[in-house]
Amino acid sequence: MRPHDLLCPTPKGLYCPPGDFYIDPVKPVERALVTHGHADHARPGNDKVLATPRTLAIMALRYGEEFCRERQPAAWGEALTINGVTVSFHPAGHVLGSAQIKVEKDGLSIVASGDYKRRADPTAEPFEPVACHVFITEATFALPVFRHPDSFEEIRKLIASVKQFPERAHMVGAYALGKAQRVIRMLRDEGYEAPIYIHGALKKLCDFYQSEGIDLGDLRPATLERGNKADFAGAIIVGPPSTFADRWARRFPDPVSCFASGWMRVRQRARQRGVELPLILSDHCDWDELTRTIDELRPQEVWVTHGREEALVRWCELEGIPARPLHLVGYEDESD
What we know:
Blueprint: H1 3-6, E1 8-10, E2 13-16, E3 21-23, E4 31-33, E5 48-51, H2 53-63, E6 70-73, E7 80-82, E8 85-91, E9 99-105, E10 108-112, E11 134-139, H3 151-164, E12 170-173, H4 179-189, E13 196-198, H5 203-211, E14 219-221, E15 236-239, E16 256-260, H6 267-272, E17 277-279, H7 287-297, E18 301-307, H8 309-318, E19 323-325
Parallel strand pairs: 3-4, 4-5, 5-6, 10-11, 11-18, 12-15, 12-16, 13-14, 13-15, 16-17, 18-19
Antiparallel strand pairs: 1-2, 2-3, 7-8, 8-9, 9-10
């Protein structure tokens, strides 16, 4: 069997013909294997969904309990058989419950990594290298210019700014699933014990993380119903980046605009968003981590998807590893 006979790109997503299933389909299908709960990978409307228990729970929170007709939880490392194809789920380190999916048949193995991260993250299961013949890697930050700084140093920058400007509120834009909880937990790990105020859009997911044993400390709603602007002086407020451009944001005193994203490495993006304090904090690998992962796995072939595909393909070729872009559509990276 050749690799593209086992997995191949289609308009609906990555498809396994012998198993008759899709991985992270972009359109409704009969059987979907889902790597993680971000909206560009986990969509409602599929008939059957196989994912980790945490990803299934996150999909139910985001889309309602009826997001699919039938759901099946996959335990870490458990080998499951679908129409003669063996599949297993392994931690990807991207967000809570995120998985790489290993697909095996007739001695051939392919790992679809989804989105993944190699850095330590107190809110996600650590990435697990999985041996395979073909490794499918994302390429969100696959350019040598993307080398992320120390994550906790970025959090210390935020804490230092709060101390420097005690009269101002610090508004941190962070994606609702994964990034927001990571920022909050890292603030706690750095000794920040004050209440952290959150936008209502984060409450369900933060409550879920807390229920899964990830302590986020004292979280309070960022509303003015029982107070006034002065109550938020010196406070940290976390919310989805989109909310900071609307009327909701104008209720806080002289806010310091912050944005937690790997894209804050690009100064022009920070300026375009009016970000005063960029926090370079990514839930994806940087260039060195991507190349280190491929070098560590040493697969026979690499397939590259959503991101800076050409640069990583070229690096693989220079390393003597056959590689090609998949050109999958429907996956976004702006939210990082």
